[in-house]
Design a protein that fits this description.
About 80% of the residues lie in helices and about 0% in strands. The chain has nine helices and no strands. The longest helix has about 30 residues.
Length: about 190
């Protein structure tokens, strides 16, 4: 009887010894994909701005989303910022007394509303479908509003100052979307 009882006991001891002696391999640290995406485009966009924008706009899953998802977030953020800048420019144009500032603000509203924001929305749709051949031609229009608005307000320094932050943020976000599109498209 000793033999039949000791065999299961011996097997249990052996299993416990093996389990105690085997150390679990450490699981790899999770990859922060926001850091990877922003690092990939750091030649074009400030890394800290990129990371903050993707984390705030990408929701709780941003740090594990792929670069394609980051592109879509950047396009959404840029389109939303452009729409906000368009609305601000249109509101300022309605109340502006200085003709140069009023004309400049109207031009800003047109540039955001008729070129960059629609182009970003179309680009985002094509990028979501991975239709790169349709998304790429829109890149020429996506960033025009911020630059064009600055130029339109050249003769109205106070008005230019009121739009400076919106134009700068839009430029950064549209550049992010453009750079991410180029990176995602080049991956195939």
């Amino acid at each position: 009887m000793t033999t039949s009882c000791s065999a299961p006991l011996l097997a249990a001891v052996l299993v416990l010894a093996l389990l105690a002696g085997v150390q679990a391999a450490p699981s790899p640290a999770p990859v922060d994909t926001v850091a990877d995406s922003c690092d990939a485009i750091r030649d074009f966009v400030d890394y800290a701005f990129c990371a903050t924008a993707l984390r705030s706009g990408g929701g709780p899953g941003a740090s594990t989303a792929d670069r394609h998802a980051h592109l879509l977030v950047a396009a959404d953020l840029a389109a939303a910022r452009g729409a906000s800048a368009r609305d601000a420019a249109n509101a300022m144009a309605r109340t502006e007394r200085d003709p140069a500032a009023r004309d400049g603000m109207e031009a800003c509203g047109i540039l955001y509303g008729a070129t960059s924001v629609p182009a970003l929305r179309f680009m985002r749709g094509y990028a979501a479908a991975r239709a790169w051949d349709r998304a790429r031609p829109l890149l020429a229009l996506t960033g025009q509003a911020g630059i064009g608005c600055e130029a339109a307000l050249e003769g109205a320094p106070e008005a230019k100052g009121r739009m400076a932050k919106a134009n700068r943020e839009f430029d950064q976000l549209s550049t992010m979307a453009t750079a991410l599109l180029n990176k995602v498209d080049s991956l195939g």
